Amino acid sequence: MRRLLLALALTGCGGAPTRTAVVDPALVDEVPEPESGQPALQYYLVLTADAGAMPDKAAVDAMFAAVNGEGARYAAVRNRVKWVPGNYRLGVDLDFADLPHPAFSADKLAALLADLPPEVKAKAAQAKLAITLRSDVTTLPNADHIRLAGLAALYVADVSQGIIVDLLARRAWTPDAWQAELAAGQLGPDQVRLTQRADGDGTWLLTRGHPKFGAPDVQMRGIAAGQLTAARARFAEVQHQVQARGAQVGQRVAGVTLVACDAPKGMFDGACVQVPAP
Fold first, then answer.
1. What's the DSSP call for residue 99?
2. Largest Cα–Cα distance of the chain, in whole Å?
3. What's the confidence (pLDDT) of residue 89?
4. pLDDT tens, 134-164?
5. Quick check: 254 and 29 in contact, CB under 8 A?
6. pLDDT digits (tens, 9 = 90+) for 213-223
7. pLDDT of 92-133, one tens digit each?
8. CB 151 within 8 Å of CB 204
């Protein structure tokens, strides 16, 4: 395994505002992620059959050229970024793992790839290399930092003909779908996902993806079967406001006081707030 720690100074440009994302129907989320003690606002995985992808400094330089909008495909995204302060630096930490690898076994990836077309999932199954991209870059207005770090993942997937997995939001993308998402006037609901796990005799609801917006993820535990509909309604209202406002422990949101909770495995920033079940 090899690792690269990279940083790039950026300059601002004009663009369009971004709407707050919302959660979609719940994904059963029992899949552990690779252990990491490193904070990450964004955490992507590129699966590729190109075992020699991103081999040298020239490839890294080309990646950051893409982040700065060189080439029409990347400029379409970069031009959406409204404002970047003069001293802003985008940091990206790249790791490379040869496949097969226990952290990225087929059974662990199956749930994350489930929404892809069958032919794309088959392509992912043939991957020889897993490239992870972590970024703990400071948030920007309108969540434009998602576009910037997302461009790094897009470039790696483009040159390696790979598939992008957003490990925080538990969702996979083809390069063209990811480019369209980043280039849209508003980032869509797929930046955040509602997931659920078994919790004893009940259900555990939790969001995935809030850290990308600089907000804690939200969870609700111990939901009885007969209360799941009411719990989802309360949870959705609180979740939306936490993501939009970045609400923290002790604050009241939608009539609920947020309390601290232990972040489940895979939430790399460790930030989590809990909503009481009905």
1. S
2. 58
3. 87
4. 888 888 888 899 999 999 999 999 999 999 9
5. no
6. 888 889 999 99
7. 889 999 998 888 888 878 888 988 999 999 999 999 999 999
8. no
- Pick the closest to residue 134 from 79, 90, 173 (CA basis): 90
- Supply the mean pLDDT for the chain: 83
Question: And the tokens for 124?
Answer: 């992912």
* Alpha helical stretches, state H, 72-129: 72-78, 106-110, 118-125
Cα(15)–Cα(185) distance, integer angstroms: 8
Q: Is 65 exposed, middle or buried (0-12, 13-18, 19+ CB in 10 A)?
A: middle
Single out the residue in 189, 222, 250 at which a domain terminates: 189
Helix axes 175-183, 144-160, angle to 10 degrees: 160
Residues 212 and 121 in one domain: no
152 and 56 both lie in a single domain: yes
Through-space distance between the first and last CA atoms of the chain, rounded to whole angstroms:
47
Same structural domain, 173 and 205: no
**pTM for the whole structure:** 0.86
